[in-house]
Amino acid sequence: MKILAIESSCDDTASAIVEDGREVLSSVIASQVPEHILYGGVVPEIASRRHCESVSGVVKKALEEAKLSLDDIDAIACTYAPGLIGALLVGVNFAKGLSYSKKLPLIPVHHLRSHIASNYITHIQLEPPFLALVVSGGHTHLINVRSYTDYEIIGRTRDDAAGEALDKAARTLGLPYPGGLNMDRVCKDGDADAYKFPFPKVSGSELDFSFSGLKTAVINLVHNLNQKGENIDIENIGASYMKCVVNCLCDRTMRAIDKTGINNLVLAGGVSANSVLRREMTRLADEKGIELYFPELKYCGDNAAMVGSQAYYEYKNGSIASLKLNATAALDIDKNLTM
Ligand code: KG4
Ligand code: ZN
């Protein structure tokens, strides 16, 4: 089954064609980074406009790269939640148009489900059940993935997402958008013990995260250094900060492994590209005998191949939308769409 997928939840307009959930026949991404870089972050209104301009060209290119026409496609999939509402609407409406005109099933895909599915195209033998740490710009979740379409959130951030905490700290250090990515590039070889940041405590649940205190700590540190006219040691501050964020992610994830007894661990989302996180999780997994999976770097950030992969399993589970499908800005991964 060949699925044409569209992703437009944030600042990437993407389309891909994926066969039977695992084989990527094409994957095209139009990035908006050069434009948002001017503002230090994603400007939602600009993102929506650029999606409108790019979406048909990106879909056309995905078909060309796969050497297919719309007549060869069996279903259309799109990201419908969660994300920037204006951005999501562009992909959803384009997908509806294609589905209507070609009389093809329309498959709605949850963005975080698709991030997890980026591992299905990287590791073609991987199957649920497993534990997933989903770390993106807007979400930080520990999820018990019981099946391809059945999820239980067992830990989540109480405030900022890990990606957001990295992006804000990077901005404070004067690094360009996307901050997390640039902090990784610039600071990965810095001295991670040069600065001490507080390890966040979260009362109530040992599997929840909190990053807002850490973010405030780095902002205060940089302001104090600025006020004293001292040098801002970007490389070492960034390295120490990343170490602390990664330690929090690893600490909660290892607790979740111990608590659930699940021995297969999957990383997903934009932050799963982080070199410090990949290294530290690999070390811990080796130490504890855990099977660890993370997506190929090109599938860590937003892309449509992961949407096409997850769509296959949603379709097999009977999740087909009518033309009444709407975009939704916020929706937990364990909720199913009422169509
Ligand atoms: O999944 P994603 O592409 O979009 C969302 O769904 O939010 O994640 C974007 C986030 C941003 O916060 C970005 O700074 C972060 O992923 N990111 C990274 C790296 N690459 C992207 N953070 C740390 N290290 C990286 N190498
Ligand atoms: Zn994402």
Give a brief rundown of this model.
The protein is of the alpha/beta class and 339 residues long. The chain folds into two domains: 2-116 and 299-316, ATPase, nucleotide binding domain (Nucleotidyltransferase, domain 5, 2-Layer Sandwich); 127-297, ATPase, nucleotide binding domain (Nucleotidyltransferase, domain 5, 2-Layer Sandwich), CATH 3.30.420.40.
Summary keywords:
339 residues; alpha/beta; Nucleotidyltransferase, domain 5; 5-stranded mixed β-sheet; 10 helices
Q: What report would you give on this structure?
A:
- The protein is α/β, with parallel strands linked by helices and 339 residues long.
- The protein has two domains: 2-116 and 299-316, Nucleotidyltransferase, domain 5; 127-297, 2-Layer Sandwich (Nucleotidyltransferase, domain 5), CATH 3.30.420.
- The protein contains ten helices and ten strands.
- It has helices at 33-36, 44-65, 85-102, 111-122, 162-172, 179-187, 212-227, 234-260, 275-288, 305-316; strands at residues 2-7, 12-19, 23-31, 75-81, 106-110, 130-135, 140-147, 150-156, 264-268, 291-293.
- The protein has a five-stranded mixed β-sheet, sandwiched between helices.
- Helix 4 (111-122) packs across helix 10, helix 5 runs parallel beside helix 7 (212-227) and helix 6 crosses helix 8.
- The radius of gyration is 20 Å and the shape is globular.
- The chain binds 5'-O-[(R)-(carboxyoxy)(hydroxy)phosphoryl]adenosine and zinc ion.
- Residues 111, 115, 136, 269-270, 302 line the site of zinc ion.
Show the helix and strand layout.
Blueprint: E1 2-7, E2 12-19, E3 23-31, H1 33-36, H2 44-65, E4 75-81, H3 85-102, E5 106-110, H4 111-122, E6 130-135, E7 140-147, E8 150-156, H5 162-172, H6 179-187, H7 212-227, H8 234-260, E9 264-268, H9 275-288, E10 291-293, H10 305-316
Parallel strand pairs: 1-4, 4-5, 6-9, 9-10
Antiparallel strand pairs: 1-2, 2-3, 6-7, 7-8
Helix pairs in contact: 2-3, 4-10, 5-6, 5-7, 5-8, 6-8, 8-9
